[in-house]
Structure to design on (465 residues):
């Protein structure tokens, strides 16, 4: 395997169908790229991207417009599917051709699903396959697309994990980037290239603290929900096997219930969990039980069914070298040993508020989420796998000359603010908009404002003050 990826044009590029939605024209592109960009030959996969232009520009020569590539959050989520010109996309299309990338393994790109991974011939082949689905490979895909499209350089917009990918891009192919905009995605430890397990453990210690803060605010907003959570935990713990069956075939346990805190990082997260909890119970002549509405709502809150890559590679996106070893579970266990604060059954028995957890992946989900059960052995293999120490080049970031602008959310529950500040300080010339007006979902809440502000910062239209 080569020491660095080989950036080359896609083997094939096919332009597919064009259609319109209100205010936009969409064109499909498919590119055949190497599975392993570090090898000179080998298997190929397909990467799908959707070109988006404003409808009123499509009849003219839209090829004169510069490109903006959108890198989605995740890892393991496909790009947005626009149904109309709205939000940041409408604003971006005023001056760009936008390329919505389905990152490898997602959407219409060659999918990495439970069924496709099981057909790879065993545990080790599947683990080797997924070793090529991190930010460094996504950046190499972008370079293949850029070269195939004949683009000298383009602009980037990276949201969350897409921001992590942007920092990787700035590390290894900065000459291909005209300007980089990052929303909630200044990657932790890009400033020092700290390796695992220390890097992951530091991230999760910080995130548990952030979730604790959000949990306290949730119970302040909805104090009656503390009793509801205790009652649900007590009910679940009393059932045979320690949980109740979910509609999909999984099981809801007290530790699974805590994962509802995942929603607390978004704008309406508190409300969505509150409304779910208020429908928790239903009664009939035989007694009281958890409602089907609640159980289905719980399942819909979690992102795993359609996006197994998220569960399999979430910790790996922090692994700049070394193995993660189930970092979130290790940190959780240390907190339980020290304070007992994360034990839901003990908290309910003592009449204490039940703690929530956030954007963490724990080993137990591969037992409790039905769609993930076939991937349990693979998940454990990936947790013990040493990862390449090449997601970032600290020295290149320190000599960066590409315009970079980032929106950092002061109360972000998914990307620790202090880590983000260290990374911003390591990227030469990076400018920030720091705000507590939004949570992690700011670009979805107020995309036009954020996009315009970051573009102005990157282009020095907003003078340094």
């Amino acid at each position: 395997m080569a020491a660095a990826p080989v950036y080359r044009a896609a083997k094939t590029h096919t332009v597919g169908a064009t259609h319109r939605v209100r205010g936009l024209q969409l064109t499909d592109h498919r590119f055949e790229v190497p599975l392993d960009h570090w090898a000179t030959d080998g298997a190929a996969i397909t990467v799908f991207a959707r070109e988006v232009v404003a409808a009123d520009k499509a009849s003219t020569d839209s090829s004169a417009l510069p490109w903006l590539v959108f890198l989605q959050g995740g890892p393991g989520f496909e790009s947005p599917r626009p149904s109309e010109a709205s939000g940041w996309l409408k604003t971006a299309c005023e001056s760009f051709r936008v390329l919505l990338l389905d990152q490898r393994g997602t959407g219409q790109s060659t999918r990495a699903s439970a069924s496709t991974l099981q057909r790879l011939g065993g545990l080790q082949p599947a683990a080797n396959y997924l070793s090529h689905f991190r930010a460094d490979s996504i950046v190499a895909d972008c370079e293949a697309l850029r070269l195939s499209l004949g683009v000298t350089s383009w602009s980037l917009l990276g949201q969350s994990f897409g921001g992590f990918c942007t920092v990787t891009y700035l590390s290894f192919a900065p000459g291909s980037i005209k300007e980089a905009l990052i929303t909630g995605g200044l990657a932790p430890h890009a400033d020092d290239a700290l390796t695992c397990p220390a890097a992951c453990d530091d991230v999760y210690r910080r995130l548990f603290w952030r979730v604790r803060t959000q949990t306290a605010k949730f119970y302040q907003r909805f104090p009656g929900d503390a009793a509801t959570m205790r009652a649900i935990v007590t009910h679940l713990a009393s059932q045979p096997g320690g949980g109740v069956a979910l509609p999909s075939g999984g099981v809801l346990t007290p530790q699974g219930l805590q994962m509802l805190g995942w929603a607390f990082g978004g704008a309406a997260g508190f409300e969505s969990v509150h409304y779910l909890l208020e429908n928790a119970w239903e009664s009939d002549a035989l007694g009281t039980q958890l409602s089907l509405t609640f159980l289905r709502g719980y399942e819909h809150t979690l992102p795993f069914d359609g996006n197994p890559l998220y569960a399999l590679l979430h910790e790996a996106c922090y692994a700049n070298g070394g193995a993660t070893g189930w970092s979130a579970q290790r940190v959780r266990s240390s907190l339980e040993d020290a304070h007992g604060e994360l034990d839901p059954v003990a908290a309910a028995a003592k009449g204490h508020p039940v703690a929530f957890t956030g954007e963490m992946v724990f080993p137990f989900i591969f037992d409790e989420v039905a769609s993930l059960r076939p991937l349990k052995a693979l998940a454990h293999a990936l947790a013990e796998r040493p990862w390449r120490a090449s997601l970032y080049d600290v020295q290149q970031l320190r000599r960066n000359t590409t315009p970079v602008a980032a929106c950092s959310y002061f109360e972000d529950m998914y990307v620790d603010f202090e880590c983000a500040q260290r990374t911003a300080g390591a990227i030469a010339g990076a400018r920030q908009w720091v705000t507590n007006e939004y949570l992690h979902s700011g670009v979805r809440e107020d995309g036009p404002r954020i996009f315009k502000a970051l573009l102005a910062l990157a282009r020095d239209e907003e003078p340094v003050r």
Remarks:
- The mean pLDDT is 94.
- The chain has two domains: 12-194+390-458, 198-383.
